[in-house]
Amino acid sequence: MTRSMAVVHLGVEPYGPALELQRRLVALRQEGRIGDTLLLLEHDPVITLGRRADPGHILASPEALARAGIAVHRVERGGDVTYHGPGQLVGYPIVHLPSLGLGASDYMHHLEDVLAAALAEWGIATQRRTGVIGVWVGDNKIAALGVRVSKGVTYHGFALNVAPNMDHWATIIPCGITDGGVTSISQELGTAPPMAGVRTQVVRHFGERFGARMCTVTLEALLAAPPTHAVAD
User: Quick one: which of 9, 40, 82, 225 has the most CB atoms within 10 Å?
Assistant: First the structure.
């Protein structure tokens, strides 16, 4: 039987409140008070550092970042230093991996597959890179991934570059990788499809890859939904 997954579109959100929302939803998923959920949004400009990130991979001074309006957050996801900003589609799946029969590594590859399939809709050929999580066009990363799993429930997720301000990546060494660059749909095509169209394709391929019927709901409706069942560790 096909499972249902809620999809919540949040618009453009500051990073801090979105992170707190994720933590709240993770707790609710662990308690069985919500089902699997995919949050889709864009962020105000922000640099995030994963658990083992090297602060030296931020190249700009705090003063320069402040002038550019770029915030900085250290978070509990895996991975190194990355950037989020308007024009980038960010997805935060809140899903219970054991219910999907997936381990963390398979889950990450599923996310890569979703984004690769979505990009193929615009004729953008991608590949994986051995030993490095993400979606690549040649030597340039077009989508970054970083995930945390708590009691079987995922949060954090993926960031797909649609048409962001590429100059902001000059403030960091993205993901600590020095032998590759960063690209976007806009750079690859010379123009970018509407963000709404990119969201539609990502949701469609997410549902196909994860075997889920994707149901768009408001955040208020999600939080008001009746309990499902508590998940096991």
Answer: 82
